[in-house]
């Protein structure tokens, strides 16, 4: 019972801070748009790298896939983490892939607008967390910009991580579902 109360309190605390975190996130994203103008010469190469890197996050060569995809300095926000270097993104994706049993991201549609690329995707993964099997299937979009070498310099995801991930967890999932009902 004490553990349940602790998890609930932590969840409520995180939800209560979301307004501040959102303002910071928006500001960082806007700054990244100004900082990383992108280059449209190697977009096709960059999109091929993106598709390959994310096609299977459990692949043994995922570190090499993500090293090839991202530039040394990058703005990366997947709604869970904001990272600024390729090394940090690679380490994060290696850890993420190690925690998954299966993973698949399918690119459904791509829209190009000058240096801006918007990718609509579906993601499916299987993992275990808090003693439960989790099978998540979600949709999302990613705003990408690439440098002259076709490496991603800006990666901003738009997806509901609360529904896709947190809603599957005991206690936390209950709090997320209750918050959704009240909105």
Q: Could you explain how this protein is built, in words?
A:
This protein is α+β, with helices and mostly antiparallel strands. It has a single domain, classed as Nuclear Transport Factor 2, Chain: A. It is 45% helix and 34% strand. The protein has seven helices and six strands, in the order ααααββαββββαα. It has helices spanning 2-16, 18-35, 43-55, 62-69, 86-98, 161-164, 172-182; strands spanning 70-77, 82-85, 100-113, 116-129, 132-146, 152-159. The protein has a six-stranded mixed β-sheet with strand order 2-1-6-5-4-3. The chain is globular, with a radius of gyration of 17 Å.
Quick gist of this model?
45% of the residues lie in helices and 34% in strands. It is α+β, with helices and mostly antiparallel strands and 183 residues long.
Properties at a glance:
183 residues, alpha+beta, Nuclear Transport Factor 2, Chain: A, six-stranded mixed sheet, 6 strands, 34% strand
Q: How far is the first residue's CA from the last residue's CA?
A: 27 Å
Structural domain tally: 1
Beta-strand content bin: 25-35%
Q: Could you say which overall geometry the principal axes of the C-alpha atoms support? A: globular
| Secondary-structure class | alpha+beta
The largest beta-sheet arranges its strands as 2-1-6-5-4-3
Query: What integer is the average pLDDT?
Result: 83
Instruction: Report the sheet with the most strands, covering strand number, pairing sense and barrel closure.
Output: 6 strands, mixed
The H-and-E topology, N to C, reads as: HHHHEEHEEEEHH
Helix percent band: 40-55%
